[in-house]
Amino acid sequence: MYFGLKQSKFANMESQREHQNKQVAIWLMIGVGMLIVQILIGGVTRLTGSGLSITEWKPILGLIPPLNEQQWGQAFQMYQEKTGQFKYLNNDFTLSQFKFIYFWEWFHRAWARFIGIVFLIPFFYFIYKKAFNKDIIIKLFALFLLGVGQGLIGWIMVKSGLNDDNLYVSHIRLAVHFISALILVAFTFWFALTLMIPQKQILSNPKMKNWLIFILLF
Ligand code: HEM
Questions:
Q1: Which residue's CA lies nearest to atom 10 of ligand 1?
Q2: What is the DSSP letter of 167?
Q3: Whose CA is nearest to atom 33 of ligand 1?
Q4: Burial (CB count within 10 angstroms: exposed 0-12, middle 13-18, buried 19+), residue 128
Q5: How high is the pLDDT of residue 12?
Q6: Which of 34, 101, 108 has the most ligand 1 atoms within 8 A of CB, as the residue to mutate?
Q7: pLDDT digits (tens, 9 = 90+) for 142-185
Q8: In 3D, which of 127, 103, 107 has the Cα closest to residue 115?
Q9: Is residue 1 scored above 70 in pLDDT?
């Protein structure tokens, strides 16, 4: 009788753990979706030549765009003064053309902040619900560092274009920003799969693994 009770208590804990893991996995998958959207917005930001339109980085207050003509004038003036891009490429820009490029860079950063919020709020909720074991906490910490790093790389990349010499951001820093974005989305997806797919259902196929390594190196 005692062992029966103990077994059902254990089974309860197991199914509760599985349920919590599923919830965490869904949260991470939402993150994967948002990161894919962010990569697309980043591509549009690049293709519209919008990357240098915001010449300062205010992680929190930067969410508020210029709200009146005077503030727009200031933002446009900073773009004119701080970028070779304006001097040599866009010196015929009107305020409305500037507002167009400003929107894409602002939207890209705003979406990054939104990803941060969608990460932090459930993160504290799951902490409160004790949904994380040690393994999950380590992976979440790595995810947090990758996310913060992605934003930092973004700003370091923008800074590479805030001078008289460069018309665009450095292509090396851009490549780092792009590849780190792919690592971030791949890690988040893998993390979610480790929580969604029970261990016993994971197939290991050495041949396929060799192929994967070859493709990655290639
Ligand atoms: C989750 C966070 C972020 C992700 C996943 C992300 C991803 C990307 C990607 C994939 C691109 C396109 C790269 C290419 O065309 O090769 C891009 C462009 C860009 N990102 Fe981000 N980004 C993030 C956050 C940020 C932040 C916080 C900043 C600035 C502080 C930033 C600044 C930029 C700029 C300026 C461009 C356009 C580069 C250009 O002018 O060509 N990004 N981003």
A1: 39
A2: S
A3: 154
A4: exposed
A5: 76
A6: 108
A7: 999 999 999 999 999 999 999 998 999 999 999 999 999 999 99
A8: 107
A9: no
How far, rounded to the nearest angstrom, does the alpha carbon of residue 45 sit from its chain's CA centroid? 15
| Six token digits for residue 37 | 């959207």
Instruction: Give the span between the Cα atoms of 218 and 177, in whole angstroms.
Output: 20
Report how far ligand 1's centroid is from the alpha carbon of 118 (Å).
Answer: 18
Residue 119 contacts by C-beta under 8 Å, 6 or more apart in sequence? Answer: 31, 143, 144, 147
- HSE toward the beta carbon, residue 58, CA cutoff 13 A: 7
Q: Which residues contact 110 (CB under 8 A, 6 or more apart)?
A: 63
Q: What's the rounded Cα separation, in Å, for the pair 157 and 83?
A: 14
If you ran DSSP here, which 8-state letter would residue 66 be given? -
3-state secondary structure of 164: coil
d(CA 189, CA 32): 6
Tell me how far CA of residue 42 lies from CA of 97, 173, 207, in angstroms: 19, 14, 36
Cα–Cα distance measured from residue 152 to residue 146, given in angstroms and rounded to the nearest whole number: 10
Indicate the Cα dihedral angle 19, 21, 25, 26, nearest 10°.
20
CB 95 within 8 A of CB 76: yes
**139 CA → ligand 1 middle, Å:** 23
